[in-house]
Design a protein that fits this description.
- Strand 8 and strand 9 form a beta hairpin.
- The protein has 1 helix and 16 strands.
- The protein is mainly beta.
- It has one domain: Jelly Rolls (Sandwich).
């Protein structure tokens, strides 16, 4: 059957505003790629993709030499559709995307800006239908870098931590230059994340009640990334999505591929590559 590929969103040195009609705002580079059409996300499904992050350059993380800033798998029904893109750098391309859930593969510790626990972790972030952020704390009703510091986004109110959950420091480094496989399994009520076949995170999540979905069922799937003073190659390969029959099993999630794509994010001014390959199955 013919396959469908991800569609690249133009990367910006200047990103769009957060609300319809807002003027663009200056931002570091970001990139995004989305499925051309919204797909069903209320029934059980799994996505699998290989990624490689390599050649850290610039102001690397002093703790482990990692580059910035990482990638995110995002489920979204933003008003911009396949044009949705957020802030680069520590925003990882999804800060500012409305109505979304992001699975962050973070390789740079921005503890001064977002409260990152370390420079090699995975987290699941959402603010429901409001615009998403990579922050991890809601303190005193505002987004904060950490409980002891002033708000990073003054005036942005919150009632819950944006992070549903996050891992501790992972090993090995996700940006060690090697190919890593991620699998994300959704069963209504639970989102589970595997890295290199190991279960690393499981969070309570119901997409139907968390997001405002098209026709009550559909959203766009894709990836975002960002860089700034610390940068690296950030490549996504072999992306697939498949429905998961009940009961869901991790080993069964690789069958019945629906999407295949090869795409990448390159350094700094080339956050998103311009070419994408189409496959048939």
């Amino acid at each position: 059957m013919p396959t469908t590929v991800l569609r690249l969103t133009p990367n910006y040195e200047t990103n769009p505003g957060l609300n319809p009609g807002d003027p663009p705002v200056g931002d570091p580079p970001a990139g995004a790629a989305w499925t051309p059409n919204a797909v069903n996300v209320v029934d059980p499904f799994a996505v699998s993709f290989d990624f490689r992050m390599s050649d850290a350059t610039g102001q690397v993380d002093p703790a482990d030499g990692s580059g910035g800033d990482g990638i995110a798998f995002v489920i979204q029904n933003d008003f911009r559709g396949t044009s949705a893109i957020g802030r680069g750098a520590g925003g990882m391309g999804f800060l500012g995307i409305f109505d979304s859930v992001a699975v962050m593969f973070d390789t740079y510790q921005n503890n001064y800006a977002y409260g990152d626990p370390n420079g090699n972790y995975i987290a699941v972030n959402t603010r429901g239908t409001d615009f998403n952020v990579p922050h991890h704390f809601c303190t005193g009703g505002e987004l904060t870098t950490d409980p002891l510091k002033a708000p990073d986004l003054p005036g942005v109110t919150c009632t819950a931590n944006p992070s549903l959950s996050m891992t501790g420091a992972l090993s090995p480094l996700m940006d060690d230059g090697n190919l890593h496989q991620a699998m994300i399994v959704y069963d209504p009520g639970t989102l589970t994340v595997y890295l290199d076949s190991a279960l690393v995170l499981s969070v309570p999540l119901n997409l139907a009640s968390t997001l405002s979905l098209q026709n009550g069922t559909d959203a766009y799937l894709g990836f975002t990334a960002g860089t700034r003073f610390s940068y690296q190659n950030q490549d996504i390969v072999d992306f697939s999505m498949t429905p998961v029959p009940e009961p869901a099993t991790a080993t069964g999630c690789l069958a019945g591929l629906v999407f295949l794509a090869v795409l990448g994010w390159k350094r700094r001014g080339q956050v998103a590559v311009k070419a994408i390959s189409k496959f048939e199955k």
